[in-house]
Amino acid sequence: MMEGEIVDDYSDRVRNSRMQKGWSQKDLAMKLKEKELLIKKIEKGDLIPEDDVRKKLEQILGISLLDTSTGDLSTETGGKLTTTFGDLIKIKKGGK
Known about the structure:
mainly alpha, elongated
């Protein structure tokens, strides 16, 4: 689905980037071809943007909204809760 998890401060990043460009929420909505209400909800943190909207926001505002730091996670798993076939085999065989 996503290449990483959405950052916790996505709403601040969107709002700050928009304001740095001197755009209103309506301006940004028009550039994204989305509704102004959507921008308001994203900036308030009430709504996590869908993948397509997130990509448009990143492109138009020149920001990143994904946490791509891998930390202890391998990039192949794509996230903390991803179950691999290897995990399923271990579960089937009794956990070791």
